[in-house]
Specification:
about 400 residues, alpha+beta, nine-stranded mixed β-sheet, 20 strands, about 35% helix
Length: about 400
């Protein structure tokens, strides 16, 4: 499955940050991590910190899947509003899930400082605004749910949004103090370089072909013909997990994004703000750390890569027009691309064991919170390796 198309902005901006070999010799390890995107890098970091002997493989070049296509907006908000999630899974699980995403943003900040990251991590406020008058009642209900749960939020009227941010067609919204952005492609490479120095072995263009139990261990055969004997496998394959697990647990959608030319004035005005709205599908907007503006959305059900790619020009034009309607100024597109993401029945990830896979763990951070869910998974993986049950497991498990 091709989960991105064209060349996303982050890949071009960063260039070739690091290179890794494919695997041509048999290996033995404590943990095999399958997937070399931001999720795999985070999980590898956690496992290495616990003193595990780890091997990481990816069938592409490192970070060339979703981590190259993501918009890297770090939000505590889940695609399912808090007040609705409470109805779906109960108040305890809903609030715990939201708070885990909030904590994850802080944890990423700490981790970027620890490894002396240059990936442009920046804390920001987040504005979730009503794009239609009819959305005001439920959005106010969402505001009340977040405020009662202890999140630092403010309600802004249409006039206040217009005065503070210059957004047209915004009928009110929730301003949250917690949010951030980062260059996930760059951060992925930084994490891997950091851990390679500590002994992590990384191999790209090395695809998992088969998995076979052999006594107390598992033998994995890869596309190069090499074999890896491991005690445990952690799958960090994102949306491509659907090719491994036969269950129907996620729907795949295509999303589209455009990035502007460098615009210093626009950057200065919005550099400390994430924006998204209640349109269906919703729009999401942020600045980049090199002075550009990013807008994404126009989601559609996943199509084969060729058909999806053929939509990029049309979708980019629509996104540009949406920007003009919101900000009353032209958008000068420098980059455009498409990516794939998954939606679940409750907006939550699938993180945990699957009954069909012994000594294995899956980290599938679906939805708009893939990165923050993956940070939460670091702690969940630690619990699993220590044979402890994580409090979030019952809400993130398969078969829930």
């Amino acid at each position: 499955m091709d989960i991105k198309s064209n060349e996303p902005f982050w890949l071009i901006k960063n260039g070739l940050l690091a290179t890794y070999p494919s695997l041509h010799q048999d290996k033995t390890c404590d943990i095999l991590i399958v997937g070399g995107g931001i999720t795999g890098a985070l999980i590898a970091h956690q496992c290495m910190a616990m003193g595990k002997n780890c091997v990481l493989i990816d069938k592409r070049e490192i970070a060339n899947g979703s981590s190259a296509a993501t918009t890297s907006m770090l939000q505590y908000e889940i695609d399912t509003p808090l007040y609705e999630l409470k109805k779906l899974i109960g108040e305890e699980g809903a609030i715990a899930s939201y708070k885990a995403c909030s904590k994850a943003i802080d944890d990423i900040g700490l981790l970027t400082r620890k490894i002396k990251s240059k990936a442009g991590f920046r804390t920001k406020e987040s504005l979730y605004y009503a794009a239609r008058k009819k959305d005001i009642p439920w959005l106010k209900q969402e505001f009340n749910a977040r405020e009662s749960a202890g999140f630092v939020v403010s309600w802004l009227s249409a006039d206040e949004i217009q005065a503070q941010y210059g957004l047209a067609n915004a009928y009110g919204g929730i301003l949250s103090r917690q949010g951030a952005s980062i260059d996930a492609f760059c951060f992925t490479h930084e994490l891997l370089v950091y851990n390679v120095k500590a002994g992590l072995e990384v191999f790209d263009k090395t695809e998992l072909v088969s998995v076979k139990r052999d006594g107390q261990s598992t033998v994995v055969t890869v596309s190069t013909g090499a074999m890896i004997r491991t005690k445990k496998i952690i799958y960090c394959m994102g949306y491509e997990t659907v090719s491994v697990i036969p269950d129907k647990f996620v729907d795949l959608l295509s999303t589209f994004a455009i990035v502007s030319e460098v615009d210093s004035a626009l950057y200065q005005q919005y550099k400390d703000l994430l924006m998204w709205n209640t349109s269906d599908p919703y729009l999401y907007m942020r600045t980049t750390d090199d002075g550009r503006f990013l807008i994404g959305g126009e989601d559609e059900e996943f199509r084969d890569p060729k058909k999806r790619d053929a939509l990029i020009a049309k979708k980019s034009d629509k996104l540009g027009k949406s920007f003009q309607n919101i900000f009353n100024r032209p958008f000068f597109t420098d980059f455009s691309w498409a990516g794939t993401f998954g939606v679940t029945k409750d907006g939550l990830p699938y993180i945990g064991e699957h009954k069909a896979f012994k000594d294995s763990y899956f980290v599938c951070g679906f939805g708009g919170n893939g990165i923050t869910f993956s940070v939460t998974a670091m702690e969940m993986v630690a619990y699993w390796l220590e044979n402890r049950k994580h409090p979030l497991s019952k809400w993130f498990k398969f078969g829930r």
